[in-house]
Design a protein that fits this description.
alpha/beta, 38 strands, elongated, about 15% helix, Spore Coat Polysaccharide Biosynthesis Protein SpsA, Chain A, 8 helices, binds magnesium ion, 13-stranded parallel β-sheet, eleven-stranded parallel β-sheet, UDP N-Acetylglucosamine Acyltransferase, domain 1, 2 domains, binds uridine-diphosphate-N-acetylglucosamine
Length: about 475
């Protein structure tokens, strides 16, 4: 491609049918705002710039979208909203004349970059190119009117169309590529003399034909690529379509999914070789699964790196948020485990059911298998951390660290009151509340001594007076 591409994203409309306080283009699909999908797609086309036209909820929309790394992002406001042609008129002053303008809609998230590239190739930097689609029920859409020799003559909006025109099943998708210099001239000629009293962008077709310039159409059959979101039902339908795409891509790369219809990726999931994912798992943010990782059913995994051969058993919740979570090679986690930000598990670590780990490092071979809490702790190699034990890391004002050195055995139901260090190779007796550092190799017990009273008579229930 030898011409620069500037993308205009129309996003000023209200989205009444969403019945939501949130502007329509900020509703999420696969964890990303609808319009963000469109912007990211533009970036994949190596567009020079993206101009988003905002109106309803403009401030929220402008704050809710991010510029891709390599493409400039600008916002232009359209107040009031007088139609799609009026929308693009607002962007015209910031579009350089040497490029092609690609018009997209902020509520159409699943157009493939390859499709847009084909449209740009058809435009070739010199003529108007429309993305069109055959639809069994074209009600509501602009119809592509062709002449006897099949060349495109006009787009006629449904409300303005005659009966004969309404029978046409080829519709305009809302996406066009047009040399910017030509567009500028045509935008100046728009009027609103139509049934809706709007400035129609689609009238540029008429002008191109009148100027003796050919209009090209790239006709596709995959309706999902041009489907817009107008209601929660349509949003849910496109969410499933998106998730299926993600699942298919993962499977093409070798990931084994128990059921591609029961996977949700709301971010970026990267899988090594021989990864297996059971049903109903949700992945959020950035997740990396190493070779041979297995994820059991009903896990939520967010912002985490799971290294080769680790197994996450069912119903585990892992969320690294900003700090991240790391699960080392061959580690076993769950079922019903919770790994929070800053959990960093070494090789072969075992974290069992109802164990919570937060901001703690566990060295290779450490185990906490049942009902335990490790927060702000540094745990050495091969430590065995007993059922029901906790690090009391918070004194009500500040967090403190617990250090458990290598080969320590912490019995069941212990409280380690931080800051505290358990010396290497030491043993903590079950039920102990440890408030002072312990010596390496020592047995430390801090609990009431056992007392035995022989032939103890339990209290008897008093007889009620009649
Ligand atoms: C438009 C096309 C129609 C096409 C259809 C595909 C026109 C006149 N008609 O229909 O041929 O079949 O898309 O979906 O272009 N918007 C603004 N400002 C406005 C009006 C709209 O930013 O003043 C935005 C909307 O937020 C939306 C997009 O433009 O993202 C399309 O608007 P919408 O009203 O859905 O399209 P139609 O005019 O019905
Ligand atoms: Mg409209």
């Amino acid at each position: 491609m030898s011409f620069p591409v500037d993308v205009v994203v129309m996003a000023a409309g209200k989205g009444t049918r969403m019945k939501s306080q949130r502007p329509k283009v900020l509703h999420r699909l696969g964890g990303r705002a609808l319009a963000q999908h469109v912007i990211d797609c533009a970036a994949r086309l190596s567009a020079r710039s993206v101009v988003v036209i905002t109106g309803h909820g403009a401030e929220q929309v402008e704050a809710g979208l991010q510029a891709p790394a390599t493409t400039a992002l600008r916002f232009v406001r359209q107040e009031p909203q007088l139609g799609t042609g009026h929308a693009v008129q607002q962007a015209a002053p910031v579009l350089p004349d040497d490029g092609v303008t690609l018009v997209l809609s902020g509520d159409v998230p699943l157009t493939r970059p390859e499709t847009l590239q084909a449209l740009l190739d058809l435009c070739g930097g010199s003529r108007l190119a429309l993305l069109t689609l055959d639809m069994p029920d074209p009600t509501g859409y602009g119809r592509i009117v062709r002449s006897a020799d099949a060349s495109v003559q006009a787009i006629v909006e449904h409300k303005d169309a005659s009966e004969a025109q309404r029978a046409i099943t080829e519709i305009y998708s809302g996406i066009m590529a047009v040399p910017t210099q030509l567009l500028r001239g045509w935008l100046a000629r728009l009027d609103n003399r139509n049934v809706q009293g709007e400035y129609y962008l689609t009238d540029v077709v008429k002008f191109a034909v009148a100027d003796g310039l050919g209009v090209a159409a790239h006709r596709i059959s995959d309706a999902v690529q041009v489907a817009g979101v107008n209601s929660p039902v349509q949003l849910a339908e496109l969410e499933r379509a998106y998730q299926r795409r993600v699942a298919d891509t993962l499977m093409e790369e070798g990931t084994r999914l128990a059921d591609p219809a029961r996977l949700d990726v709301r971010g970026e999931l990267v899988c090594g070789q021989d990864v297996e994912i059971d049903v109903n798992c949700v992945f959020e943010g950035r997740v990396h699964l190493g070779n041979g990782v297995r994820i059991g059913a009903n896990c939520v995994v967010a912002n985490a790196v799971i290294e080769a051969g680790a197994v996450i058993h069912p119903f585990s919740h892992i969320d690294g948020e900003k700090l991240g979570v790391k699960v080392g090679p061959g580690a076993l986690v769950g079922p019903f485990a919770r790994l929070r930000p800053g959990a960093d598990l070494g090789a072969e670590v075992h974290i069992g059911n109802f164990v919570e780990v937060k901001n703690s490092t566990l060295a290779a071979g450490a185990k906490a298998n049942h009902l335990a809490y490790l927060g702000d702790a540094t745990v050495g190699e091969r430590v065995n951390y007993g059922a029901g034990s906790i690090t009391a890391n918070y004194d009500g004002a500040n967090k403190h660290r617990t250090v458990i050195e290598a080969d320590v055995h912490v019995g069941s139901n212990c409280v380690l009151v931080a800051p505290v260090t358990i010396g290497a190779g030491g043993t903590v007796g079950g039920g102990s509340t440890i408030t002072k550092d312990t010596a390496p190799g020592a047995l430390s017990v801090a609990r009431g001594k056992q007392v035995g009273i022989a032939n103890w008579q339990r209290p008897q229930k008093k007889k009620q007076a009649p």
